Amino acid sequence: xxxxxxxxxxxxxxxxxxxxxxxxxxxxxxxxxxxDVTLVERAGVGGSAVMTDVVPSKTLIATAxxxxxxxxxxxxxxxLFARGESGKPLKPEVAINLAQxxxxxxxxxxxxxxxxxxxxxxxxxxxxxxxxxxxxxxxxIVSTGPGGTDFDRIEADTLVxxxxxxxxxxxxxxxxxxxxxxxxxxxxxxxLPEHLIVVGSGVTGAEFASAYMNxxxxxTLISSRDRVLPGEDEDAAQVLESVFARGGMNLLPKSxxxxxxxxxxxxxxxxxxxxxxxxxxxxxxxxxxxxxAGLGLEDAGVQMTVSGHIRVNRVARTSVPNIYxxxxxxxFFPLAxxxxxxxxxxxxxxxxDVVIPLEKRRITANIFTAPEIATIGWGEADVAAGRVNGVVxxxxxxxxxxxxxxxxxxxxxxxxxxxxxxxxxxxxxxxPRASELIYPVAIAVERRLTVDQLxxxxxxxxxxxxxxxxxxxxxxxxxxxxxxE
Length: 485
Description:
By secondary structure, this protein is α/β, with parallel strands linked by helices. The protein is 29% helix and 23% strand. Keywords: FAD, Flavoprotein.
């Protein structure tokens, strides 16, 4: 493979504010194209995604998955016993050392940050630790000294803003970092919470509720809507609710938290209907706010939303031609993978390289509950609402031979294809490692493959992926040779 580089009359300069997934990928892409790149980051390369969000939370979830695997090993004939004083076998309990778990996950986050920093340095990126903002002339002003006393001014041809977002805080439920927590503060706990109350049943709330339930904590999940994950596939949400209920989680739908207060070593959550829920800890998972305040973007001419998000188009460009933005601070799609793609796309577009505008319907998303929920493209609700003329086929994982071998009873594969042509336009997978299993469906959506073309791909037997080909075969379309354009 030959890598082509763009040639310029002079070296292009790129300044990036924020070293999260978007800023990191933008810096690498710009360096690859021969630019002089400066990245400004205040907390550590990788940003909150690596330091306090994605990496530590998914490490916690991996630990919870391991705990479940051990606890359920007996169903597969694997039994753990210890000999008692009488010589009779005793069945040991699975114990969670949360202090050690949190120590490990924070260490992994720090190591990932250092690895990313090393990659940037190796690529020739200049990294400045400090707070960056944009002035009226579109230069970056960096505060590097304590108390904002020392400043650097960076002029660049292209600016990329990738400052991420922070947990939303409510005045009626102010986090104290000990008993009332945001998702960035959970890792300070030394012992497993006796009773964790999770306020918010979106992706973040569902993931942590799932993880702590599987670690052995008593969990109550408060949802203002009628079900968990209100914005996701209804069948997937139903599977997850069934798993939660079976695991002993207390689900409170159509309940809005009016206030959360600390009472000594306990928390008291009062709902809007007057119901009181008491627990040892409370996680507030009520959304996030972009870290765009004080960056000078409005004065620089950058259009913002009412919520403070940066308006960008499908190539991550803002209303100012040489200013781009990526990640959760934009109004596009709050996923780390999307931030990375936006960062690369922004630089490629700025440099006149080949760019394929981002399309939301081709973005793969995953929810790291147990079981995982992965989605791509149009959903069954879109078919029902007439937004896409499609057909839907769902195949339970319980009938898959590999699933039976692994003891998997929950989950399914769902494919959505266009009526007539059979072009795959969406999919949902619920099950272990759904984040991995969704990839072939994502390729089918991206390349506009038909269900027949997808079904012709050989899947190893036995494997969970055979459920994808089986679902595709069940949607066989007669006399369709090529996908529609």
